Amino acid sequence: MIYTKILGTGKYVPKKTLTNNDLKEFVDTNDDWIYSRTGIKERHIVTNEGTLDLAYQTALKAINSANINKNEIDLIIVATVTSDFAFPGVANLLQAKLEIEGIMAFDINAACSGFIYAMQIADKMIKSGSFNNALIIGAETLSRLTDWRDRNTCVLFGDGAGAMIIGKSETNQIIDIITGSKGDEDMLLYYKNADIKDPKINATSKQDHIHMKGNDVFKFATRIMPKTVKSLLQRNKLNVDDINFFVAHQANSRIITKSARDLGIKMDKMFMNIDKYGNTSAASVPIAIDEAIEKGLINRGDLFITVAFGGGLTWAGALIKY
Ligand code: UT7
Predict the structure, then answer these.
(1) Atom of ligand 1 nearest to the CA of 255
(2) What is the SS3 assignment for 119?
(3) Looking at 112, 133, 154, 252, which residue is catalytic?
(4) How many CA atoms lie within 13 A of 3 on its CB side?
(5) Is residue 44 annotated as a catalytic residue, yes or no?
(6) Helix, strand, or coil here: 76?
(7) Annotated catalytic residue 279
């Protein structure tokens, strides 16, 4: 039986920050509203970097933290909705930048749940015996899809990247992963690509921006995250108290506190860094896991659960022994 574990993690965010007060330049908003409704104080955004650059920087950190030779990596998966190109993928360009060409590399899109989806794919591919060490990344530049005139959405998002290296283990450490999805028929959260079917439309089309029905997404999030955590606990015959720490997708501090309340989790066991980064989509979970480890909130031997929801609509959760 092949088992898996986390070998190392990393994170990277662009240097430029936009505070809530900076946003007043573009939209009718204020720090009080943003902080009290979302928990966000500031977010990092790219200036001249792309998603590949963020992915590359975080990959270097994860490789260093895993203490492996980059040539031992035989699989790269990048979760992103903001690939710099429709093709080639971020993973393929990253492979060249890391000078580890010749191995399998691809991108996936499951919006904010994407990193845990990537984790499940990599975990199963290693457990199949066909792969040894996977570099998985969540990297996003959502600032490029944002309508900076729309105060309902522009205050929420930020750019960044997080990475993890998963490898073989003698003990069962990546214990269980749940992923799920349902079509977003009500169009709660979307960004539409230019219509390429009709040349007349294509010739005049403009880039779309993020559309969101915030209240409905909020309800979905506060229902699906506790449900996913409960399923992980039940499937593995564990109670909330058996888990040392929880890392939820950082979309809104109120979504996290409500989910914690419903599950009976004390807030000191629930990670929160949304104040510094905003919602970084697929990068949110790996940035949060890396920071929780760095701060000593997750230590070797601890059991932790990470959980996310996102566009799609998608959801995902993982039970891990670090
Ligand atoms: O990764 C997945 C992504 N998305 C999410 O997780 C989003 C989930 N939803 C949310 O986080 C919340 O629904 C929001 C933060 C987006 C909105 O918070 P809310 O408490 O649901 O506010 P609301 O949309 O009900 O708006 C309340 C009021 C409105 O004014 P009126 O109509 O009551 O006069 C808005 O126009 O707040 C107003 N408002 C703002 N005011 C100042 C909305 N955005 C802003 C703003 N600054 N940025």
Answers:
(1) 11
(2) helix
(3) 112
(4) 14
(5) no
(6) strand
(7) yes
- Provide the residue-wise pLDDT of the chain in tens; the chain has 322 residues: 999 999 999 999 999 999 999 999 889 999 999 999 999 999 999 999 999 999 999 999 999 999 999 999 999 999 999 999 999 999 999 999 999 999 999 999 999 999 999 999 999 999 999 999 999 999 999 999 999 999 999 999 999 999 999 999 999 999 999 999 999 999 999 999 877 677 777 777 778 899 999 999 999 999 999 999 999 999 999 999 999 999 999 999 999 999 999 999 999 999 999 999 999 999 999 999 999 999 999 999 999 999 999 999 999 999 999 9
Half-sphere exposure of 101 (CA within 13 A, CB side): 5
Give the pTM. Answer: 0.97
77 and 137 assigned to the same domain = yes
- For the chain, the domain total comes to 2
CATH (domain of 216): 3.40.47.10
Domain that residue 268 falls in: 176-198+205-321
Residue nearest to atom 41 of ligand 1 (CA): 29
DSSP letters, 197-225, are SSHHHHHH------EE-HHHHHHHHHHHH
Judge whether 112 counts as a catalytic residue. yes
